[in-house]
Amino acid sequence: MHLPRLTPRTILGFRFSSLAVLVFGVAGALLVLQASAQTRRPPEEEKWRVVVLNNADFLLPSSAIMDQALRETLTKGSPRSIEISGETLDSLRHPGTIDDLLYALLHKKYERTKVDLVIARARTSIEFVRRYGQDLWPNAPVVFYNEAPDSWRTRAAVPNSTGVLLDLNPAYTIDLALRLHPRTRNIFVVGGTAAYDRSWKPLVEPLLTPLKPSHSVTWLDHLPLAKILETVSALPPDSIVFYTSILIDADGNTRANAQVAAQVAAASAAPVYGWLDTYIGIGIVGGEFADFAAHGRAAARRALQVLRGETAESIPVEPPLPAKCIVDARAMRRFRIDESLLPSGCEVQFRTPSMWRDHRGYVIGALAAIAAQALLIATLFIQHRRRRQAELAARQQRVELAHALRLATIGEMTAAVSHEINQPLTAILSNAEAAEMMLGAGVRSPDELREILADIRRDNLRASEILRRLRSFLRKHDMQKQVINVNELVSDTVRLVEMEAAHREVTVEAQPAPSPCLVNGDRTQLQQLLINLVINAMDAMAETPVAERKVILRVLRFDDGKIEIAVSDDGHGIADDARGRLFDSFFTTKPRGLGLGLSIARTITEAHGGTIRSENNPSGGATFRVTLPEGQTEPSF
């Protein structure tokens, strides 16, 4: 085989290649180490391992409630991921008989696992941890729960431990039952033969013994379940039943505690009370219970304190939470128990919904609001009625006042009216005397007699027309609106006041609009309005030279649908101090005036939807302007 020749240049190239491989290798190793360091979690991110040691089956109702609350609180409150392992001693069915075998199993299971915390439930689990804990979980702190205050004696023997106490004192439930049934004379206690069942008797019996001899106390723990159900179904009316626990009955049959409680409650002729809140809702009346879920959460909070670094021994043992009164509304209804006898704050479950009972505050508030609204509506209705009555009374007063003012106006015009009527009457009399003289003289001239009769008829019609206008003007009536031609209204008004104007030596002139101006209104009231203004204008010219005494009634139509009647005079005008009060009631500048003419004029104008205002003329005198809304060819009412 032919080998290449090694030259200095070849050797140098080989050395550089080897050096490059070495450099890249070291760099790669450094990158691998850095990546490994980055992917490795810091110690504070490592998960916690917790062992929950239960004394009974995790599926028992009380165990399930506590364990679920414990695990949820631990998981939600832990800053790290947490691994929870559950173990059970099943001591209710196998008390102390398999502890050594369980120790061997758990030792094998956890010999390579570091446990950060042990949570022990109930007395048998605490005793198991005291005996085997250091071997199974070295240096792991302990948190206990579901332990009665009186039985907490082994805490000093369990190193580095704390916990939460649970009070299942039957005294609270006994007091509640006797409070709800003050006439009770017979007490029956239902129980079983398992070790857990028998553990209740030393707790309950001392509480019932002081009730004798006024109360008869009978224990039914020596009877099989069938016989217990038969007995409670025939109890006398003055009886109550306390259910403790039946895991095993007198015949040695294993039972499900909650199911037996439901059977006893269903069969019993007397109300049944119990110690555990897991019995509520299956037929018993109720009791004063410890809150299992709250107890589990309290234990989890203690466990989190320990996991975060506090030593268990430095954390004081938490005292029991207060018992909570809970009753079943259906059972109370079945035995006709008066809810008013319940202690304050007692929770009533399974109650039929009632708007009044469950939302009394809202109902009272709603009724109060409705009552307030009804009162307000009634008050407004009464006020509206009173207002209408007041308005009617005021309107009637205005009608009476306007009528009185018309009478007063005619009174002022008496001389002129008398003169105006006297003229046609005098003419009639003269014509009648002339006809009589002609007939007496024997003159027979039919043409002259016809002329005399025509004059009499004409003067009679003139007098009748004067009286008609006066009677129409003086007649008292309520407002009756109709379509009125303002031009005609002004002309009629001028004819009505012309006799008074002649008496005062005043010229009254009407200046109608070029085309008809229609308004909807009461003819008499509008005519009274204009007469008041004309009379005031003539009064204002009492000291004006006769040649300059002139009143003009001018009718104008505006593009915005308004009709204006302007009454102008050449009098002394309006004083500055009187201008603001000119239309006030009982305000007058006349020595003998009533102060009602212009006030009524404003009332009439506003009743017709119009306005009235006054102003001084630049050349002297004053002008009153009445503005009314234009009407229709037919009334719109």
Account of the protein in words:
With 637 residues, the chain is α/β, with parallel strands linked by helices. The chain has 4 domains: 45-165, 3-Layer(aba) Sandwich (Rossmann fold); 171-289 and 323-355, 3-Layer(aba) Sandwich (Rossmann fold), CATH 3.40.50.2300; 422-475, no CATH class; 477-637, Heat Shock Protein 90 (2-Layer Sandwich), CATH 3.30.565. Helix content is 48%, strand content 16%. The strands form 5 sheets. It has a 5-stranded parallel sheet with strand order 2-1-3-4-5. Strands 14-16-17-19-18 form a 5-stranded mixed sheet. Helix 4 links the parallel strand 3 and strand 4 (142-147). Helix 2 packs parallel to helix 10, helix 14 (414-440) packs across helix 16 and helix 17 (523-540) packs antiparallel against helix 19. The radius of gyration is 58 Å and the shape is rod-shaped. It starts with 7 loop residues before the first helix and ends in an 8-residue tail after the last strand. Mean pLDDT is 82; it is low at 1-24 and 37-44.
Can you lay out the helices and strands and say which pair or pack?
Blueprint: H1 8-39, E1 48-54, H2 61-77, E2 82-88, H3 99-110, E3 117-121, H4 122-136, E4 142-147, E5 161-165, H5 171-180, E6 186-190, H6 195-198, H7 201-208, E7 216-219, H8 225-232, E8 239-243, H9 257-267, E9 272-274, E10 286-289, H10 292-307, E11 324-328, H11 329-334, E12 347-349, H12 355-358, H13 360-412, H14 414-440, H15 446-474, E13 482-485, H16 486-503, E14 507-511, E15 518-521, H17 523-540, E16 550-557, E17 562-568, H18 576-579, H19 597-607, E18 611-616, E19 622-629
Parallel strand pairs: 1-2, 1-3, 3-4, 4-5, 6-7, 6-8, 8-9, 11-12, 14-16
Antiparallel strand pairs: 10-11, 13-15, 16-17, 17-19, 18-19
